[in-house]
Amino acid sequence: xxxxxxxxxxxxxxxxxxxxxxxxxLLATLLLSSAALFATVTVAxxxxxxxxxxxxxxRVATEPTGSRRFSARLVFPDxxxxxxxxxxxxxxxxxxxxxxxxxxxxxxxxTSYELDRVAGRYSGLADERxxxxxxxxxxxxxxxxxxxxxxxxxxxxxxxxxxEYGSATFIEVDEAAELELFVSTTGLLVRKRPKSSG
Length: 198
Hints:
Elements: H1 2-14, H2 18-52, E1 54-66, E2 69-75, E3 81-87, E4 90-100, H3 102-106, E5 112-121, H4 125-130, E6 135-137, H5 146-152, H6 154-157, E7 161-172, E8 177-184, E9 187-192
Antiparallel strand pairs: 1-2, 1-8, 2-3, 4-5, 4-7, 5-6, 8-9
Helix pairs in contact: 1-2
């Protein structure tokens, strides 16, 4: 539309109709500026959505089974389930995180992750050193591990990867609870699921 007014303004300027040409060129400039503003807002909004994006990594049901013991049943988005018997006061989960450069976010490639371990965690440091530890792997075996490839071929991945790091989260287990484990662009986080009203 703005190009049509731009062409109209140029045609009117050739015919020496100054007022019509000026109005058409002003309208064309206004429409072009509006289009540029909307394009900027669209790109900025997409970037913002990528920044705050969260992905469900697992649903977790915890159940105390004794003094400083509990079970944790993890249900993954693909339907796979695993149950662990853990010792400690808190559920602990960690992951490998690969954060891609912003241009790749705009192309739809978001933070990649792999859950690595689940463990029981004690609130006190002395207990963490002295009490029994329970740690299990969550990583599924695969022929290629993206995190390991990034480390082995750093020069190849350097232009694509913004950061690689480990992330962990933990939450106290003092009663049966339904939890949701999320991965965001800043790492892992865990939330209690809202109780259903029903």
